[in-house]
Design brief:
Chain lengths: ~280, ~170
Amino acid sequence: MLQLVDFVVRNRFFLVFVLLEVLSVWLIVRNNTYWGATYFNTSNYYVAKTLAFSNSVRDYTKLDEINADLASENAHLHALVAKLSQTNSGQLPAGYVPDSAFAARFTYTVAKVVDNETNKANNVITIDKGTAHGIKPGMGVISATGVVGKVRFCSEHYSVITSILHSNFMVSSKLVRSKEIGYAKWDGKDPNLIDMIDVSKYTKVYKGDSAVTSDQNSVFPPNIMVGKVEHVAVNPNQTFYNITLRLATDFRNLSYVYVVQNHQLVEQENLKSRTIELKK
Amino acid sequence: MSLREAIQYSLMILLYLFLQIFFMRNIVLFNYAFCFIYIAAILLLPADMDRMYTLLVAFAIGFVVDVFSNTFGMHAAATVLIAYLRPFLIHYQMKSRGAERAEVGIRAQGLGAFVSYIFPLILIHHSMLFLMEMNNFGMILYTLIRIGASTLFTTILIILLELFSKR
């Protein structure tokens, strides 16, 4: 017993060192626990307030670009309205009557970016809307120019978003001209480029073609811009293309985003989970 | 350590944390070189400070930086590691120079000795941080370049700040 006490006293620095390291690693691994997710990230009220303060100075210098983005979004929406009023969605089959609740399932909440990262291997964004404004983890986030990410943590007034520039985030997307569906996934290097995987190499892929969110997405509304095809390569041993997209959104200048709320998401997920239970 | 010194060093730690959180977080050169200036607060603590306190202070500093950058515990882990290794390096340097008192700082040690004291610790800190952040092994070359560039950037900045600060 005395030897044990002696051992502990002699090696106390090493033991404290190991203890602190284990604590840090535990924090990293268990980053989804309730109190870790609630207090120890940038959705913490005081942390977010501080960051918002330091960000407010930079915002003034970016007003020009924000204006330009909003103007181009306006133009795009005007074009869309004109197109919709002319053609009453002619591509639907004759007997199909769209459900009005389904068509109006998405609502949007505007939020301001408080803190923004682009340079790390896993980037997150902090916004100034939280559970008090009806935001919940799992909701999609878009900007005036394209897809941004998915809500990860919420506090009462702030939320942390997993950006599309994060290693465990994928968006189901569709190439407009070749109508192929694949996944957009970041490789962790350049914040302007993103990879598109799982696109079969037996169809033609055009350079400069747009990639948009696909209809199979439950988080994002369909036809939100992801990026443009920058580079296409074929690996002879594989059945898939290696496609690189140039992102539509400039993440360095992100200022305002829209949080997308899908009112039928719960219903859809419930149905899906029932099929999984049946398989068991 | 006297009360005056304790307050002085607490202020130094707060200043470096402030610098890190408000300025250095946004500065990245060429998408490669990051600057983690806050570790200077650990490196410049007095050499004869109690090792237990150094470890705890290092954990606290790392944890604050973690909270502000959504990294959960990576900065804390890396900072505690260099706080643990620091006394060995100081001791080794003191022995090889035959000095009687261990002191830290560019004026007390001279430029050469100071660089050979901070450079290995910064390299260890940055390696640990970037390797923990790495997602897949395919990024290893990219990560190594980042480690090298960031180590140089942080070292140069700490030396500059040391040169222009009055003690």
